[in-house]
Every structure is written in C-alpha cells, then in structure tokens.
Amino acid sequence: MSLLTTLWRGGRVLSPTSPDATAVLVEGARIAWVGPDAEAPRADETVDLDGALVTPAFVDSHVHLTGTGSSLVGLHLAGLGSARAVLDKVASFAASLPPDAIVLAGGWDETAWDDPTPPTGEEVERAAGGRLAYLSRACGHVGIAGPRVLDAYPELYTLDHAVGDGPLKRMAHRAARGYLAAAAPVSQRLALAQAALDRAASLGIAAVVEHTVPVASDSRTEAEFTGLIELGSRPGNPAVHGWWGELCAAERARDLGAHGCGGDLSADGSLGARTAYLSGPYRDDESTRGTPYLTADQVRDHLADCHRVGLSAAFHAIGDAAIATVLDGLDLAERTVGIDEIRHARHRIEHAELLDAAMIARMVHHGVHASVQPAFDAAWGGPDGMYNARLGREAALAANPFARLSGVGVPLAFGSDAPVTPLDPWGGVRAAVHHHNPAMRLAPTTAFTAATRGGWRALGVDDAGALSPGMSADFAVWDRTDPGLPDLGDPEAPDPQCDMTVAAGHLIYRRG
Fold first, then answer.
1. Pairing of strands 45-48, 5-9
2. How many CA within 13 A on the CB side of residue 71?
3. What are the DSSP calls for 261-311, one per residue?
4. pLDDT tens digit sequence for 211-228
5. Lowest CB count within 10 Å: 28, 131, 311, 378, which one?
6. Is 382 left (phi over 0), alpha (psi -120 to 50) or beta?
7. Element (H, E) at 61
8. For residue 186, what are the CA distances in angstroms to 195, 220, 228, 237?
9. What pLDDT is stored for residue 103 in this prediction?
10. Residue 302 Cα to chain centre, angstroms
C-alpha cells in the first residue's frame, strides 16, 4: 500500500540541500523531496504555507513531563520575590482545595530574594491550611516538608540530610516528594504530562527526552514512565524518549521501553542546593564542597551494565568534581568495554556546567555528548546571579562553556530541564547566543543546530533534524516570511510564533 503524500508549498524552507527551497514533500513519516514550488511533484494533499518559514523542529533533550504539566496547570512558585510571597501563593491555592488534598509544588528560589531565608515547615503547613505539604526548590534537589509529612513518614529521619528544622536534601528530599506524589493516580499524572506535551507542540518541539528517577517511596513510577512513553507514541503528540535513572538497571530500563539507563542518575546535586560536587569549597559556605552521589567504580559498573544490554548511559553531573568522577568511570570502563564501543554508544553527561579544558578533552576522547541547558546561564549567570554567589565571579563566568565544548567537537544537545526552567526552545537558543561570558557564546546557527539536530544525534538518531530527502519529517512552521533564521543578535526582538508543528509526518499542532 502506498503512503499518503503531502506537499507543503509556498514557504521559505531552511534546507541544507536546497537553499532556494519553497516546498517540502512528505511521504508517510519521511521527507521525500525538497525544492522550489515550480518543480514540486504531485501529492495526495497540498498545504499552502503563505510564505512562512519552515525549519527543523526543536528537540528538548531534558524534561520532566509530569512536573512540567503540574507547573503549567497547578501551583508553581517560580518568579516570586520573597518567602512571604511563596506562603501567600500557597495559601491562595490551598483555599480552593478539599481538606484531604495534598499540596505538592516547586519553583521557589531564595537567591532572588532580599532575605534568602526559606519558609519553615511550620509556615508552609499553616499556609496549606494544615494539609500535607511539600515545596521543592527550583533546582529540584531540596525541599521544605510540613511537620505532618515528617510525622506521617518517620522513616525520612533515617535518610541522609533529613533534618526536622530545615530543608530536606538528597535521598530524604526525593523520598518525601515520592511519598506525596504516590497519592496521585497514574491517570492524573499522565493528564499533567499531556498538558506539557501540548505546550511543547505549540512551541515547535517535535520530541522531548524524559528523565525519570525512580524512588522506593513511589510505587507507581514504573507505570507512569511506561505511560509517558505510550503518550509519545500517539500520532498527535511529540515523541517521548525516556531515560530510566536507576543505577545498574539496564535490563529493567530496556523492559520498560526506555531509550537509555541513567539520565538524571545523579553524580551530584545542584548549585542552588549547594550539593553540586566541587573540587573546592563554595564561596558562600566554605564548610562544604557539595556531595558526591556516585563513585568512579559505580559509574564503571553502570556503563558495563548498559553495554551488556545495549543501551546508552547518561549521568547528571554539574560540579567539576562530579564530572571528573564520571570521566574517571569512563576511563575504568574503557579497560574492559573498549574505547571504540564507548565512543559509539553516545553516552551523555546531563548539565555539565563546571569543567575545564582537560575535562573537555576527556569528553572528546570518550565521544560523550553534553546535554546542556542554556537557560541556566540566563537565569543564574552573570555578576549578580546565583552562580556568582555560590562560586565567585571567575568560576561563574566559566560555567556552561558552550563555545569551548562545541569548538573542540563535543556534540551539544539543548534542553530546558523543565520545570526547572520553562519549555522555551527559542529562549534556549538565545541564551546560548547571549551567554553572560562572550567567550562562551555560540553562533546562532550552531545554537539552533544544538536545539534541533543535536538532540536527535544525542539519541543516536541520525536521520532526523534536517529538511532533506530521506530524513524524518519533523519540522515547524513559523509566522515569519523572511528567509533564514531570525536575527538573534537583538535580545529584545520577539521570538517567532509557531503556526504548525509536524512530528514524524503528523501534524501535532496548528495555531488557532
């Protein structure tokens, strides 16, 4: 049976093989032809583009779909200027809830407050009307539990960083969040994820990379994860490629339908929580260098497990000491797995924020992809940002070295880490072009490629991310009639608005 063909014509097509293209012929899920309207083949259907710009669709290489959906339709605490504002928003939201509801939200960021003291657990619980309540910080690595949470789950006191008079970190944080999340049925979680996918499609995103971290306190995580993968298989949604963040669990990841094992498998925490693992002390708290979550031997064993099953591995590593641990593990794995196998596996480091030239050279040696979030520099970089407070000016300006990574051949893939920062692909491209440190900035075309084809390549998919014959039909149509990418040099210029998004040949979004 022949596949349905659709001719998209009358636009301005950004194609590496046909610079003057105005039309794209799609056959099934593939691009069959690209060129000028006058030479276009006949098709079963024709779509008039009215002069609009057509580009490869975006890939968001690091998201948490359920949390992103919750931030879109539920309580989210980003952008608030004080602890009082956080408590007021919690109180306003809780006032509409039934008495037995649970208040679970995230997004607060004390580094933007005049007084950086976070609310106490007692204050959070009062604002929530006495309900079970837990508020995660913007970074997702620390949170505030109301006293009822600690009373209901006394085992939290047995976990590391579980202190009754302050925020919870590490496993205590993850367990507390898992206990409360477990109350939500899988159907409710997937409804939130669908809201996130709808938003992604409206922004020209044709694929997202989900990073799930299972915790023992939430028995529904596996069902949620397989449900997310199934959502991505539906013709009306962006594709969902899932990473299962469990150490040495490649067989389980494969059986769950994961693309790889790891992802947000943490070698350390976050800079905001001061749990990112550094080679020296934090500038604003010299008593700590952060926390190592994995050893080099564990990284080696995880890599060996992934190679045995045939999956890629990925590790969350932000601090320079954590990245060094991952690279040391790669060195150890090389002795048994072999360098050629490692280089072809497309292993990844998620975030990769603090690293020097020697570490970058080691990434090149191992063929490691860097899955990075340019919006982090936009949000927390610069002389007045959180990076400066935590690290000092010199280290802050050296963070997120996109140009240095790209300049020596480390493949880049852009993501948002939503809901840590919002789904905003053009914003991510702009952030890379306008890095606070001019030496770390990328050219617009390089940044756009990292946000499109770079995401596919990091997944091991080489036949997507460009508008050429034989490639997967993943593209976006923008309300822009000028040829080529928009001028990203002006940070105040508006981003293009998405008119349509196509994923694997299916129209998944049409504006209006």
1. parallel
2. 27
3. E-SS-BSS--TTTT-S--SS-BTTBTT--------HHHHHHHHHHHHHHT-
4. 999 999 999 999 999 999
5. 28
6. left
7. strand 58-63
8. 14, 7, 10, 19
9. 92
10. 22
Contact 140, 106 (CB under 8 A): yes
Rounded CA-CA distance 328/341 in Å is 17
Residue 239: strand pairing partners: 207
Is pTM beyond 0.90? Reply is yes
State the amino acid at position 382 in one-letter form: G
Two tokens at 390? 């935590």
Nearest to 334 by CA among 311, 290, 381, 368: 368
Using the structure block, give the residue that is written with the tokens 């099953």. Answer: 309
Residues contacting 1, CB < 8 A, separation 6+: none
Whole-angstrom distance, CA of residue 18 vs CA of residue 483: 13
pLDDT per residue over 121-180, tens digit each?
A: 999 999 999 999 999 999 988 999 999 998 888 888 777 654 445 788 888 888 888 888
Q: Give the residue carrying structure tokens 């790209």.
A: 406
In the chain, domain spans: 5-57+468-510, 75-181, 186-458
3-state secondary structure of 47: strand
Q: Return the amino acid letter for 408.
A: V
What is the distance between the alpha carbons of residues 250 and 507, in angstroms, rounded to a whole number?
Answer: 34
**How far apart are the C-alpha atoms of 293 and 104, rounded to whole Å?**
25
Strand arrangement, sheet containing 45-48 = 30-35, 23-27, 5-9, 45-48
pLDDT band at 274 (very low <50, low <70, confident <90, very high): very high
Q: For helices 425-433 and 444-451, what crossing angle results, to 10°?
A: 140
Q: What are the tokens at 52?
A: 């609009």
| 354-392 burial: b if 16+ Cβ within 10 Å, else e | bbeeebbebbeebbbbbbbbbbbbbbbbbeebbbbbbbe
**CATH architecture, domain 5-57+468-510:** Roll (2.30)
Give the Cα separation of 158 and 216 in Å (integer).
14
Contact 205, 238 (CB under 8 A): yes
Q: The CATH number of 186-458 is which of 3.10.20.30, 3.60.140.10, 3.20.20.140, 3.30.310.50? A: 3.20.20.140
AA identity, residue 412: L
Contacts of residue 343, Cβ cutoff 8 Å, sequence gap at least 6: 366, 367
What residue spans of 98-137 are helical by DSSP H? 121-127
Which H or E element spans position 67?
helix 65-73
> Cα–Cα distance between 62 and 296 in angstroms, integer?
24
Which option is the CATH number for 75-181: 3.40.630.40, 3.10.310.70, 3.40.50.1000, 3.20.20.70?
A: 3.10.310.70
Centre a 10 Å sphere on the Cβ of residue 507 and count the other Cβ atoms it contains: 15
| β 23-27/239-244 pair status | unpaired
**Structure tokens belonging to residue 206:** 């044709």
Distance CA(313)–CA(262), nearest Å, equals 5
